[in-house]
C-alpha cells in the first residue's frame, strides 16, 4: 500500500519530462554536392540543442532533430551558412564559400548573406 503513494509522483515525473522537452524535427534544403559537404554540414550542427542532423547529397535536404528550447531553426540555418552552405534563409559568406573544396562549390541561388566574423580562420 505504501508503494501506491509514490505511484502518482513517478507518473508525474515521466509526464513532466515530455512537457519540458520541445523536440522538433525539421527538413531544410541545403545546397551542396558530395559526401565531403555532408560531413561539413553535419559537423557544423554538433552543437548544444541539436540531437541529430543528416544531410542527403541526392535530395539536398537536411533532416535535423533539435530541442526548440535551446536552438531555433533560424540558428540552425545560420550555423550551416557559416560553414559555407546556402539555406533558404541564409547565404554563406563568399569568403567561406570560396574556401570550400572544388567539388563542394555548388551553384548558388539568392538568399540573405550571412556576415563573416573577423579573425576566424580555417
Automatic annotation (TrEMBL):
Keywords: Signal
An MF annotation (GO) of this entry: metal ion binding
Annotated organism of origin: Pedobacter steynii
Annotated HMA domain residues: 21-88
Domain of life: Bacteria
Protein name: ATPase
Cleavable signal peptide: 1-21
